[in-house]
Amino acid sequence: MTKMEKVKNYINGKFHNPLQDNWIENYCPANGDVYGLIPNSSKDDVENAYIAAKSAFPTWSQTTLEERSRILIKISELLEANLQRFAEAESKDNGKPISLAKSVDIPRAASNFRFFGNAITQFSSESYESVGKNAVNYTLRQPIGVVGCISPWNLPLYLFTWKIAPAIAAGNCIVAKPSEVTPMTAFLLGEICNEAGLPKGVLNIVHGLGTSTGQAIVEHPDIKAISFTGGTATGAHIAKVAAPMFKKLSLELGGKNPNIIFADCDYDDMLNTTVRSSFANQGQICLCGSRIFVEASIYDKFKTDFVKKVKQLKVGHPSNNDTNIGALVSKPHLEKVMSYINIAKKENGKILCGGNKVTVKGFENGYYLEPTVIEVQTDECRINQEEVFGPVVTIMTFNTEEDVLKMANKVKYGLSATLWTNSLKRTMRMSNQLQAGIVWVNTWMMRDLRTPFGGVKASGVGREGGFEALRFFTEAKNVCIKY
Ligand code: TXE
Fold first, then answer.
1. What is the pLDDT of residues 121-130, one digit of tens each?
2. pTM assigned to the model
């Protein structure tokens, strides 16, 4: 067996084993081997991380914006300089194609630091003159103190840094936990932070299971805000634990996003983007358009062309440059996705392509699955209502704008929606009425980091991105002076 890669906790600028010497096995999705060990940190490890964060806070919160900005941008530059190493680690830990880790995950993690390094220099307090009352108000935006950041496994470093960069920029200190399924790049980030001169204790990373380490962060009475991305059930549980302590909460949860295609769209662009919005990252992105609705007049053509393109996608080892679909993140997740394919079959869903596990030669124990397209007759079946979070999409037809809008909104989630049309009037009507935090028209996952990001209904509460994130990680304090 190859040498075990041991992840350690990063507390007060140093790397530590968990106090109780408890470890979890880390699996490589591409071949199913255990290749590393991860601390399963206890309450005491979380407490040590909290103490380090608490002691760093008075100085960090008073550090000038220029200095915070300089350090964040330095971290960004170091990530860029280490692109290859980080991309390889991400791909090995998660199963995603190396090409994706190199072009999306790691560059975006670097952008998160650069963006918030710049944004904090533009974030300002407001003032309000109370005309005729001889008074002036000013509103300070002060850092909260010690905050908790908990992130998932699908875009590991990308989503981890999406939280910690604004938290640090705003002057907070952090106790953070990446997913226990994909801890490696967060572990490597510790070294980069030290090299960039981030003062010790500003960022502390504890690894472990959600139910032990994550729970300890959420339950900690002095960790005053929790920013969480993950499953809806976990989000609901976190909200329940945090509410009696009046913690500030930002929850970015699941999605079951509609991709609505009208006959008047730019067809080729729509087709290529729809393949991507269905299967990028093995369909494990909360923004993936997993419910495809196609206007009746182009339904048959779309069905033929789409299935043909999906069949061309290459499932293979993540380290091959020509792989389009890598491995799913874990064995339990593969089984969950398979179980949904079976549910769809029982519900009379017609499998147009895919539906089976794939054996990749030389990596027979890896977690591979064919990209799967299922034709459904009704939007009310489970495969069309519940989040699968894998390379599985449904397609069905619609006749009127009214019908498709109803179906699009008739799920418990409301994260994103995609609309393909060249009609301006329809664009305006539909985008106003779609129940989603994000609507993309004639594109998908085009991101501008200044924009609000998050969902409605069971997709969560709060918004990340731009000044929204900086507002979340600060408390507004109004001072009213009568003169
Ligand atoms: O996520 P969890 P899971 C969806 C997707 C997936 C399902 C479950 O449908 O199949 O959620 O995935 C930590 N207190 N998404 O179970 O458990 C956990 O350790 C504090 C959508 O893997 O929500 C990890 O760090 N923390 C999603 C993080 O929560 C807890 C991305 C997310 O894990 C905790 C991932 C607890 N009690 C899955 N329990 C998206 N929105 O993008 C777990 N955690």
1. 999 999 999 9
2. 0.98
